[in-house]
Amino acid sequence: MASGLPVIVCATAGVAEIVSPESGFVLTDQTDEKCLFQILQVLSDNPQKCQVLGKVAR
Fold first, then answer.
1. How is the chain split among helix, strand and coil, in percent rounded to 5?
2. What are 51's strand-pairing partners?
């Protein structure tokens, strides 16, 4: 967060109540590897999206 990078978070007990996509976090299910892969792929293909998420998360 402090470095201005997007943060991927597993939506486990209580985490979803603390962080949200609007605050620059990307939530994923800890048991869904395909979802995590897709998130990583989208972020690696869209550097502008990474910058926006990183700025919002700061």
1. 55, 15, 35
2. none
Kindly compute the dihedral angle of the four CA atoms of residues 49, 51, 54, 56, in this order, to the nearest 10 degrees: -80
**48 to each of 10, 11, 29, 40, how far by Cα in Å?**
23, 24, 24, 14
CB 4 within 8 A of CB 58: yes
3-state secondary structure of 18: helix
Supply the pTM of this predicted model.
0.74
Whether the pLDDT of residue 1 is over 60: the answer is no
